[in-house]
Write a structure and sequence with these properties.
Layout: H1 6-9, H2 20-23, H3 36-43, H4 53-57, H5 64-72, H6 76-84, H7 90-96, H8 100-103, H9 116-130, E1 145-149, H10 153-164, E2 168-172, H11 181-184, H12 193-206, E3 209-211, H13 222-225, E4 230-233, E5 239-240, E6 253-255, H14 256-267, E7 282-286, H15 290-302, E8 306-310, H16 337-340, E9 344-346, E10 349-356, E11 362-373, E12 376-379, E13 385-388, E14 391-394, E15 398-400, H17 406-410, E16 433-435, H18 438-441, H19 446-465
Helix pairs in contact: 3-5, 3-9, 5-6, 5-9, 6-9, 7-9, 10-19, 14-15
The structure holds flavin-adenine dinucleotide (FAD) and iron/sulfur cluster.
Residues 57-58, 60, 62, 64, 93, 97, 99-101, 116-117, 120, 447 line the site of iron/sulfur cluster.
Length: 482
């Protein structure tokens, strides 16, 4: 156990976010530094419970009480060793994970939970600073060749596990840079891309090969893909949900994933100005989730005149309701850093129509309040109104993987939800083809993508060698405790 009285003497403390007016002037991460002494005291709040529910909350099964104790004892090198034992990329989860471990923390039953995610990012930051994150070279090569399609967190986790297991791994990515949504979806202010680049340096030094601008199914026929000894499909769930209502074809209405990638390219210096810049515009984001929040934060940094985020569901409660008891991940009202920076959030509203000007550009939305009647959103009579908008961003989630091209050419079976079907070992209906991440699971989270990549790698390694040595943190059917 860390500090036996820590949970009694220390209250939860998080690092401060930088002042809003300052952070809106740049793209950098929003948190200020946190003193090591403070962090150790936070780790010391961990009670090292007999049954650590945080393990169950974390899809990776991170050994949270172990590294909390090691952090409290200032044994940072052992702490990173225990953290890397279950998580290839703690710098991605430590910045981006919604931390279901914390909502499952036993201390959270009657007090504030341990700041697990903050301890996680501090351990890996320290490890990189100290030079402890070095290439882990395979003991022996197997002579087997594996292709991983897609370079998001699931593809990267699978590739790292398989390279370290001795296989020759090539990652094929259709974008011009490696990283999947970590690179061009998630804004810099949530995770600086330098974190991704330094991890890719480690992977290259270990022997993983990366090929960019290769759209498999278009630039590389699937016959060539199938010539590899094994394949991992990790192409994500990129088929976005649209809003086919009157006025949808007006100029100025874009998908979030059309808007965010060029903004990220501006932040990284690859582009001078985004073609969808929000400067001086009234922006409306349709969709109240994380992707929508990323659009809000990005619009503010681009200098939008106003930003409004719309959500069809009612405003969630401030605290856990009976529908989401401990240790589940509750639906509660959350204020992300992007929301703290301004704008308005409207709940229980639906968009009936986009209204345009004479030039064919969107000028407003026709909104109506709705109430939920048996799962159907019914308009409340007399509540129709116009909301000015010269830029509308659709952030209503994703329907699943893109079928055209790769998946249709391969002819893999899909499940009832349109994702790639897989068995217990993450193998698809094709003999040497496996699947990991959002492509098999549907739109999810980075922590699940890493867990799936690790588990699929175990399936591939067993298929190629007959051994059973790589960890399998999850089964394909595992779902969040909700
Ligand atoms: C805007 C946004 C913000 C998000 N923020 C968070 C967050 O804060 N925290 C969190 O936990 N989750 C977040 N998510 C969800 C998270 O990013 C995804 O669940 C995760 O990235 C899925 O990983 P993946 O490896 O399965 O796929 P992806 O990250 O989507 O990567 C798939 C890759 O495959 C490539 N690809 C697809 N088809 C082919 C092909 N035929 N040939 C070659 N390459 C191909 C794509 O170009 C892409 O690079 C966010 C999602 C979005 C859209
Ligand atoms: S990966 Fe996410 S759930 Fe797991 S310990 Fe880290 S913050 Fe918690």
């Amino acid at each position: 156990m860390a500090d036996p009285k820590g949970f009694l003497t220390t209250t939860r403390e998080e690092p401060k976010r930088r002042p809003v007016d300052l952070r809106l002037m740049d793209w950098r991460e929003v948190y200020e530094d946190f003193a090591t002494t403070k962090l150790q005291k936070q780790a010391g709040r961990c009670m090292d419970c007999g049954i650590p529910f945080c393990h169950q909350g974390c899809p990776l099964g991170n050994l949270i009480p172990e590294w909390n104790t090691l952090t409290w004892r200032e044994d940072w090198q052992q702490a990173i060793e225990r953290l890397h034992a279950t998580n290839n990329f703690p710098e991605f989860t430590g910045t981006l994970c919604p931390a279901p471990c914390e909502t499952a923390c036993v201390l959270g039953i009657n007090d504030d939970p341990v700041t697990i995610k903050r301890v996680e990012i501090s351990i890996i930051d320290r490890a990189f600073d100290e030079g402890w994150v070095t290439p882990q070279l395979p003991v022996a090569k197997t002579g087997q060749k594996v292709a991983v399609v897609g370079s998001g967190p699931s593809g990267l986790a699978a590739a790292q596990q398989l390279t370290r297991a001795g296989h020759s791994v090539v990652v094929l990515e259709r974008a011009d840079k490696i990283g999947g949504l970590l690179r061009y979806g998630i804004p810099e202010f949530k995770m600086e891309k330098s974190r991704l680049d330094r991890r890719l340096d480690q992977m290259r030094a270990e022997g993983t090969e990366f090929r960019t601008s290769v759209n498999v199914g278009v630039d590389l026929p699937v016959s060539e893909l199938l010539a590899y000894d094994a394949v991992v499909l990790a192409g994500g769930a990129t088929d976005w949900r649209d809003l086919p209502i009157p006025g949808r074809d007006l100029d100025g209405i874009h998908q979030a994933m059309e808007f965010l990638p060029p903004a990220n390219r501006v932040a990284s210096g690859e582009l001078d100005v985004s073609p969808f810049d929000a400067k001086g515009l009234d922006v409306v984001v349709i969709g109240g989730g994380d992707t929508g929040a990323d659009c809000v934060g990005t619009s503010h940094r681009q200098g939008a005149r106003s930003v409004t985020q719309l959500e069809i569901m009612p405003k969630p409660p401030e605290a856990r309701s009976d529908a989401h008891p401990w240790p589940t991940y509750p639906m509660i009202y959350r204020v992300s850093s992007a929301h703290e920076e301004g704008g308005e959030r409207l709940y229980a509203v639906n968009t009936q129509e986009f209204l345009g000007d004479d030039a064919g550009r969107v000028r407003a939305l026709k909104l109506v309040e709705v109430r939920n009647e048996g799962g159907k959103f019914v308009p409340v009579e007399g509540t129709e109104r116009e909301l000015p908008a010269q830029l509308v961003l659709l952030a209503m989630g994703f329907l699943g993987p893109q079928k055209q091209g790769l998946l249709e050419d391969l002819g893999v079976e899909l499940d009832a939800r349109g994702n790639v079907a897989r068995d217990k070992a993450f193998k698809t209906s094709l003999d040497n083809v496996f699947v990991a991440g959002d492509m098999g699971r549907g739109q999810s989270l980075i922590v699940w993508a890493i867990a799936e990549g690790r588990s699929a790698a175990a399936g591939v390694d067993a298929y190629l060698t007959g051994r059973d040595v790589l960890p399998r943190p999850i089964a394909p059917t595992d779902r969040p405790i909700a």
